[in-house]
Design brief:
The chain is mainly α and 87 residues long. The chain has a domain at 19-56. It is 77% helix and 7% strand. The chain has two helices and two strands; from the N terminus they run αββα. It has helices at 3-42, 60-86, and strands spanning 47-49, 52-54. A two-stranded antiparallel sheet has the order 1-2. α1 (3-42) packs antiparallel against α2. The radius of gyration is 19 Å and the shape is rod-shaped.
Length: 87
């Protein structure tokens, strides 16, 4: 294997990893917005932590909204870190 072939493969792998980071940001934003919308629609007066609404009750929708929001936020942060790292 030539060194130029090796460098082409490493560049292709880096582009792939950067695309994975971008996709994580997109999926995270979908989860984050879905969790926000679900919480705001199902709860009349949610409690707020900065910009994240939450309202914990025994009802399963309150836990679903909070989990979607937190997973979305984590995926957005992870995707940004990976995109910057592989850029």
């Amino acid at each position: 294997m030539l060194f130029s072939d090796y460098m082409h493969e490493k560049a292709e792998e880096s582009r792939h990893n950067e695309n994975v980071g971008y996709f994580l940001v997109v999926i995270g934003s979908i989860f984050f917005v879905g969790g926000l919308i679900e919480t705001v629609i199902t709860v009349e007066d949610p409690e707020w932590f900065l910009i994240i609404p939450y309202y914990l009750t025994p009802h399963p929708y309150s836990l679903l909204g909070l989990s979607l929001t937190t997973v979305g936020f984590v995926l957005i942060c992870l995707g940004i870190v990976l995109s910057v790292h592989y850029a």
